[in-house]
Amino acid sequence: MTSRFESVFLYVVARAMVPLIQVFAFYVITHGHYSPGGGFQGGVMLAASIILLRVSMGDESYDRFPREAGIVIAGFGALAFALLGFMSMLFGGNFLEYALAVPGMSADELRYWGIFFAEVFIGFLVWGALVAIYDALETGGVE
Amino acid sequence: MKLFAIILIGILAGFVVWGTNDLPERGDPTSPASTGVSTYYIENAYTDSKTPNMVTAVLADYRGFDTFGEAVVVVAAGLSCLLILLRRRRREDGTEGGLFSQADAEKAARMAAGEGLYGDGT
């Protein structure tokens, strides 16, 4: 993409919508316990907000969200999810057995927080991976 | 040929309809889907993990390993898109940079010149 579209409406409306989409995406991720939603859905919404920036602002969006950031965020999410799984193995549990992850806390509380952090990391991972795929298809990846 | 395809599709669709006779009734408590672990999840999901949304509890806790695999598949898709579509950087000496090392490129050039892998024709 070389320059942004010469459309004031698209530019203004997109800039107004992106923060709302992102706030709603965080709501969907963190309320996976209580309502439909979770990491996958919220991550897709975060990726959609970034892609809306890319489409409406063109090269200007690379200053706000660089090309390399996508795959870095995805890798961070996957690594953090894996480390969350390995935490319980330090104390004799199985992979991803949240109930044993931290000694001294009750099992149901630990599983609650384990599910919460798993959803958050899945959200990061889907967000980064989808933006990376879009950037690769659009610009040929890094530079 | 077209008639043959239509007849074949009709026969296969007949098999599918015939197979639905063996499906359990909707909401049947003795069906295989209702007698396995799902009863345990429905009864204990909240007390086990304090999570009101049973679907989330199954997705991220009871079936966490499956979800982990799904998530890694998404990352692998992103990585492979980058690997396939990456635009190669040019090095300072003008040679084409990229995913392969200099030694690999020299080896390929030797093989292309018919000199064999080790430069002595073997």
Give a description of the structure.
The complex is a heterodimer of chains A (143) and B (122). By secondary structure, chain A is mainly α. Chain A has 5 helices and no strands. Chain A has one domain. In chain A, 69% of the residues lie in helices and 0% in strands. The model of chain A has no long low-confidence stretch (mean pLDDT 87). Chain B has 122 residues and is mostly helical. Chain B has 2 domains: 30-86, no CATH class; 90-122, no CATH class. The longest helix of chain B has 22 residues, at 64-85. Chain B is flat and about 75 Å long. The interface between A and B is large, with 44 and 31 residues.
The major sheet of chain A is characterized as:
none
Helix content, binned percent of chain A: 55-70%
List the helices and strands of chain B in order. Answer: HHHHHH
Provide the structure class of chain B: mainly alpha
Order of helices and strands of chain A: HHHHH
Portion in helices of chain B? 55-70%
Give a concise summary.
The complex is a heterodimer of chains A (143) and B (122). Chain A has 143 residues and is mostly helical.
Task: Note the topology.
The complex is a heterodimer of chains A (143) and B (122).
Chain A: H1 8-30, H2 39-57, H3 61-64, H4 69-87, H5 107-139
Chain B: H1 2-19, H2 32-35, H3 38-49, H4 54-62, H5 64-85, H6 102-112
Which descriptors would you attach to this protein?
A: 143 residues; mainly alpha; B: 122 residues
